[in-house]
């Protein structure tokens, strides 16, 4: 989207069917498995967004053959049967957190000198915990005071036992797990704290199993990946993005409308698939189907909720809460401060710009309902702030979204899909 500002037009309600693109979280995990597998894999229903494109370009720069078919929502990967063939590369992953964490671990498997870097914001997003655990497994790498860029002097990954702190990001653990089958020895990972975003860990383990690698585990305390396993090349269907689905469910909730979101249903293990249940708790009528969710909006009531397992839902819920009866308190999401923006501060500032009373806490936020006013909203180059603040415009005149193109990070077609269900 080339425009610097995008204005949202108020609606009488929303109604229709939306199918969000494939999950970026699944896409980038599947790309790692397909790259390490021996042979040809085809990933279907992938999302062609900034975060997945930088992963594709990274693998190409490392000597792998990766073919994209955007019209078919497919990516084909000729896996190397192990580490990438390249012996050196400088990789810029922009502001893609999964790419930074996953590729850092992946590159320690090979041999050569590599640098992984990103935007100014990425250089403020922590990676010390991952670097420390990889060193415990025998890797040679360093980061700049615990932040990117990361410099890797790879000479294969010995493996063994490592402790990991996943209290700020579950991606640290997922990165280690995804590359663990190709270490020389069995990898055992012992968590030193309660991890955040636990469903994303389950997603990683499930995908590894889908590609032929078994993970032994004791809850969220210990994970073991026995040596001698390898990913199997295969065709793989990526589930629709539950995070992207949340905005359309919220749109129906705040307008009293109805929506059917396809591609993600009751069996999904994506963390953000629980948003429909949260909206049901607030008063909406929800019908979960095997591969879809139907929601009918209804008068909303405020809630108190711990979203440590699904922090990406905070922006969607925060804007929905504006239209509820009674305040909404969201807790245990301090890790939102190290995302693409400090999302707690960003939400507090932008909702206040709309005239909404917000209380910000170190690990959460409380939203008091009100009648929002139109304004030009900043997005902090954060796709989730842009998409969530757009929802205000369904009920308020004059809502303009600055830097709307930032939604391309995970959902390039977001505004088109929002328009498709808008009834004026």
SSE blueprint and pairings:
Blueprint: E1 5-8, E2 13-18, H1 24-36, E3 38-44, H2 50-61, E4 65-69, E5 74-80, E6 88-92, H3 97-107, E7 111-117, H4 128-136, E8 141-144, E9 147-155, E10 160-164, H5 171-179, E11 187-191, H6 198-210, E12 216-218, E13 222-225, E14 235-237, H7 242-255, E15 258-262, H8 275-282, E16 285-289, E17 292-296, E18 304-306, H9 314-321, E19 328-331, H10 343-353, E20 358-361, E21 364-367, E22 376-377, H11 383-390, E23 399-402, H12 414-420, E24 422-423
Parallel strand pairs: 2-15, 3-14, 6-7, 10-11, 18-19, 22-23
Antiparallel strand pairs: 1-23, 2-24, 3-5, 4-5, 7-9, 8-9, 11-13, 12-13, 15-17, 16-17, 19-21, 20-21
Helix pairs in contact: 1-2, 1-3, 1-6, 2-3, 3-5, 4-5, 5-6, 7-9, 9-11
Could you walk me through the main structural features you see in this protein, from its secondary elements to its overall organization?
The chain is an alpha/beta fold and 424 residues long. The protein folds into 2 domains: 5-21 and 240-423, UDP-n-acetylglucosamine1-carboxyvinyl-transferase, Chain, CATH 3.65.10; 24-237, UDP-n-acetylglucosamine1-carboxyvinyl-transferase, Chain (Alpha-beta prism), CATH 3.65.10. It has helices at 24-36, 50-61, 97-107, 128-136, 171-179, 198-210, 242-255, 275-282, 314-321, 343-353, 383-390, 414-420; strands spanning 5-8, 13-18, 38-44, 65-69, 74-80, 88-92, 111-117, 141-144, 147-155, 160-164, 187-191, 216-218, 222-225, 235-237, 258-262, 285-289, 292-296, 304-306, 328-331, 358-361, 364-367, 376-377, 399-402, 422-423. The strands form 6 sheets. The protein has a 5-stranded mixed beta sheet. Helix 1 runs parallel beside helix 6, helix 3 (97-107) runs parallel beside helix 5 (171-179) and helix 4 runs parallel beside helix 5 (171-179). The radius of gyration is 21 Å and the shape is globular. The two termini are 23 Å apart.
């Amino acid at each position: 989207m080339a425009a610097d500002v995008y204005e949202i037009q108020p609606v009488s309600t929303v109604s229709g069917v939306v199918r969000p693109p494939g999950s970026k979280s699944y896409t980038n995990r599947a790309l790692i498995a397909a790259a390490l597998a021996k042979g040809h894999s085809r990933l279907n229903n992938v999302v062609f967004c900034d975060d997945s494109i930088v992963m594709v370009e990274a693998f190409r720069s490392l000597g792998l053959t990766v073919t994209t078919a955007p019209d078919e929502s497919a990516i084909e990967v000729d896996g190397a049967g192990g580490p990438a063939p390249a012996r050196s590369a400088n990789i810029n992953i922009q502001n893609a957190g999964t790419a930074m964490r996953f590729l850092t671990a992946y590159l320690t498997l090979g041999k050569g000198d590599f640098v992984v870097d990103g935007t100014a914001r990425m250089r403020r997003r922590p990676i010390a915990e991952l670097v420390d655990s990889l060193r415990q497994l025998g890797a040679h790498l360093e980061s700049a005071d615990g932040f990117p860029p990361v410099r890797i002097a790879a000479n294969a990954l010995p493996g063994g036992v490592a402790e990991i702190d996943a209290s700020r990001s579950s991606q640290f653990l997922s990165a280690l797990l995804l590359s663990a089958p190709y270490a020389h020895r069995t990898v055992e990972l012992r968590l030193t704290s309660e991890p955040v975003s636990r469903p994303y860990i389950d997603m990683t383990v499930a995908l590894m199993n889908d590609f032929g690698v078994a993970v032994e585990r004791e809850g969220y305390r210990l994970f073991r990946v026995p040596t001698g396993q390898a990913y199997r090349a295969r065709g793989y269907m990526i589930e629709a993005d539950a995070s992207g689905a949340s905005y359309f469910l919220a749109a129906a909730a705040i307008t009293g409308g109805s929506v059917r979101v396809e591609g993600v249903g009751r069996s999904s293990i994506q963390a953000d698939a629980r948003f429909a249940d949260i909206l049901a708790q607030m008063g909406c009528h929800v019908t979960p189907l095997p591969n879809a969710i139907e929601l009918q909006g209804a008068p909303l009531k405020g809630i108190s909720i711990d979203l440590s397992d699904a922090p990406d839902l905070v922006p969607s819920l925060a804007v929905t809460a504006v239209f509820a009866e009674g305040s909404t308190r969201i807790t245990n999401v301090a890790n939102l401060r190290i995302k693409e923006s400090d999302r707690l501060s960003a939400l507090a500032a932008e909702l206040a710009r709309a005239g909404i009373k917000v209380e910000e806490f170190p690990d959460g936020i409380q939203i008091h309902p009100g009648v929002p006013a139109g304004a030009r909203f900043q997005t902090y180059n954060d796709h989730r702030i842009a998409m969530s603040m757009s929802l205000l415009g369904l009920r308020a005149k004059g809502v303009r979204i600055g830097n709307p193109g930032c939604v391309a990070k995970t959902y390039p077609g977001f505004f088109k899909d929002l328009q498709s269900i808008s009834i004026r």
